[in-house]
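Suppose a colleague, Dr. K., hands you the sequence of a protein chain of 95 amino acids and asks what its three-dimensional shape might be. Before reaching for any lab equipment, you can write down a predicted structure in token form. Begin with the sequence itself:
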Amino acid sequence: YPLCALAVSDERPVSTQSTWGNVSIYCAEKLLHFGAKPITISDSNGVIYKPDGFTQKDIDTLKVVKENRDARVGEMLNYSKQIEYTEDKLPWYAR
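The predicted structure, expressed as tokens, is then:
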């Protein structure tokens, strides 16, 4: 089952979720839709963390990378300097 944690910030809820692959991507997208700020996305190899939160543009890029190229979330390091990648960890261990 997907697991999602929300924390209230001054601006909008911040979210990290423990899901993998496509579920993680679509969960982050749904969180954005409801006004939350997803800060982690993971797959079976590791977790990417973006302190300011992922945007819809980030998620769209990740969809192309994962679905069309069958790559891992760590590939997002090539698309944004604000993203950090931690291999073999769960989202709860991101900064």
